[in-house]
Write a structure and sequence with these properties.
The structure holds two protein chains of two kinds. By secondary structure, chain A is of the alpha+beta class. Helices cover 31% and strands 23% of the residues of chain A. In chain A, β5 and β6 form a beta hairpin. In chain B, β2 and β3 form a beta hairpin. In chain B, α4 packs across α14 and α10 crosses α13. The chains are: A alpha+beta, B mainly alpha.
């Protein structure tokens, strides 16, 4: 009887641990800005934006898309999995986004190498044209334009559902 | 207390240390050995970080490398100022990238036309893609322009640029010296890291401009392009059409695309093999005409 009870106890502890792991499926935003959408598609309505390092809870997965909840931002909706990582994002010391959730113990490797502090230094070298790069990065294509473009050309959108 | 309650209590009490051990194992180890947080981290790193590869580059680091690569290329090349043409390649590029292997990069995909007659294109890591007017003049349709962009998106999605960085630079940049947890680099460290950064950027621009990627990476970018074109609904054979035009226009021993890319014949053969037995997607005459009209309007006089 006692053995049975120990076995029962061990099983329960294990299943509790499993349930905890299941519940804690959290991921981090792995890009500068990630648009949360109403549907699992790049053509879906944008509900809001998350930034690099923001943590989300994954509620559901559909192909390449994940329905997530970001309680800190009061946002819930779909993100493409390429915008997410299972690793905890460690914000680099030189990063514009640094400071929000980086403790000194976590900064680690990110303080090294290729970051905005290095870029600031590099900008003083006039063999780099960062002005045109900044201009290039400002080019943003609206989802409605993509939808209309695909529809008119009888491309993906017209054939039902974007990736 | 009945037996059920006792079991529940035993369960709770019994589960607690398990949970605690699971959560705080690292901390417990630290306090038991007297190793500080930072030192534990540093020890962990030293043990792991014997040698770094391009896989260890984070998306954010890739972004800063890509910006520098594009900035370097743009310092000696002029951009082509034509809003309609720029908008069109960005709209087409965006339509392709959202159906690619890697729809999101840290800073996203952006496309720029270079005001140059040479036949060339460059994909900087992270998605900054430069295409010359000369290359766009080889195109004959929206589909053929799409095939160029899809090939370049393939280089970005497969992170080919990062693979060009020499290993010792990655070791220097990603392992580094001194205190790993330093919040801001000191003057000496900053100087060294900036030098390593420039050298890494030079490895990539050197590959893009002079030596080119290996034949395997080029064929991989072609294969990715075929999948991407098909996913959007374009006929993947447009890449073959594009290469056939280029084959005629490129001069052997030329200084541009011919120098950094495998012979179009080799690429065409691989594409034909990959597409054997595959039917082109159907398109109505109206949609085909609409595609051709918008291509002409944007790039007809490029």
């Amino acid at each position: 009887m006692r053995r049975l009870r120990i076995l029962f106890l061990a099983l329960l502890v294990l299943s509790t641990a499993a349930a905890w792991a299941e519940q804690a499926k959290s991921m981090s935003v792995n890009v500068k800005e990630a648009q949360v959408r109403a549907t699992p598609s790049y053509l879906g309505k944008v509900l809001g934006t998350l930034v690099y390092g923001d943590q989300v809870q994954v509620l559901e997965t559909q192909k390449d898309w994940m329905r997530v909840n970001a309680p800190a931002k009061g946002l819930s909706g779909w993100l493409n999995q390429s915008a997410l990582t299972a690793k905890k994002v460690v914000l680099s010391s030189g990063s514009e986004t640094a400071g929000q959730n980086a403790s000194s113990g976590e900064v680690a490797l990110a303080g090294k190498g290729f970051n905005s502090q290095i870029e600031a230094e590099n900008r003083q070298d006039n063999t780099f044209d960062y002005v045109t790069v900044d201009r290039m990065e400002k080019i943003v294509v609206a989802p409605e334009s993509v939808s209309a473009f695909l529809q008119q050309g009888e491309l993906a959108a017209a054939k039902g559902g974007a990736k | 207390m009945n037996s059920l309650k006792r079991t529940a209590l035993a369960l709770l009490v019994g589960a607690m240390p398990f949970a605690a051990a699971a959560f705080d194992f690292g901390k417990a180890l630290q306090s038991a050995t007297g190793v500080s947080d930072e030192n534990a981290q540093a020890i962990g790193q030293a043990a792991q970080a014997v040698s770094k590869s391009s896989e260890d580059i984070t998306p954010e680091q890739e972004y800063y490398i890509g910006r520098a690569v594009a900035a370097k290329l743009l310092s000696t090349r002029k951009s082509y100022e034509n809003q309609a043409a720029t908008d069109y390649v960005n709209l087409l590029g965006r339509s392709l990238s959202i159906y690619s292997d890697k729809p999101e990069t840290f800073g996203g995909y952006h496309f720029l036309i270079l005001d140059a007659d040479e036949i060339n294109a460059f994909a900087a890591p992270g998605g900054l893609i430069l295409i010359t007017r000369g290359l766009l003049r080889c195109a004959i349709s929206e589909e053929t322009v799409a095939s160029i962009l899809a090939h370049e998106i393939g280089h970005v999605a497969k992170q080919h640029g990062l693979k060009a960085i020499k290993k010792d630079r990655l070791n220097k940049a990603l392992i580094g010296v001194g205190s790993a947890a330093a919040q801001v680099l000191g003057p000496q460290e900053l100087k060294e890291q900036t030098a390593t950064f420039k050298d890494s950027v030079g490895d990539i621009t050197g590959t893009l401009v002079n030596s080119g990627y290996s034949r395997d990476l080029e064929l991989e970018a072609d294969k990715t392009a075929l999948d991407n074109l098909r996913a959007v609904g374009y006929d993947p054979r447009s890449l073959e059409d594009m290469l056939k035009v280029m084959e005629k226009k490129l001069k052997a021993g030329g200084l541009d695309f011919a120098k950094t890319h495998p012979d179009p014949k080799v690429r065409i053969a691989a594409i034909e093999k990959a597409l054997t037995g595959k039917k082109p997607p159907a398109v109505s005459p109206e949609a085909a005409a609409a595609r051709q009209a918008r291509y002409k309007a944007a790039l007809g006089n490029i």
